[in-house]
């Protein structure tokens, strides 16, 4: 990797991690809910957006292995955040849905993050906002490439 590419990679990762950390810190709901690991939070967001999803569907959306998603779902069911139900189309299969108010609160917290980021974007200069808008398609391509990458190191 060339030096400028390495520098850009490091800066991009630093900003991405810091954005997540800042939002998580500033939008915590009074500390009553435990902070979930990222993978569990992603499963809850996916199930909230696509209720009554099968494990395989969730795994495909998140680009994870079904056995990994099954373990994550089992943990979230044990915590009372998700529930499993028989699939109404195929009773041999199960579907997953959000179970309680704590999970719904997590979805609302994500919505608040969008609101907060939107407010701060509105405070940027038009030039900075255009630069972010212009960078988003490249960031989406990078994200997709990373999801599909078989690179382990």
Number of strands: 2
- The SS-based structural class is mainly alpha
Q: Radius of gyration in whole Å, from Cα?
A: 18 Å
State the major sheet.
2 strands, antiparallel
Q: How much is the average pLDDT? A: 84
Following the backbone from N to C, one meets helices and strands in this order, namely HHHHEEHH
Helix content: 55-70%
Spatial separation of the terminal alpha carbons: 12 Å
Approximate shape? globular
Proportion of strand residues? 5-15%
Residue runs with pLDDT of under 50 for 5 or more positions: none
Adjacency order of strands in the biggest sheet: 1-2
Number of helices: 6
Report on the structure:
It contains six helices and two strands; from the N terminus they run ααααββαα. The protein has helices at 3-26, 38-49, 55-62, 66-78, 101-123, 126-148, and strands at residues 82-86, 94-98. A two-stranded antiparallel ribbon has the order 1-2. Helix 2 (38-49) packs across helix 4, helix 2 (38-49) packs across helix 5 (101-123) and helix 3 packs across helix 4. The longest helix has 24 residues, at 3-26. The two termini are 12 Å apart. The mean pLDDT is 84.
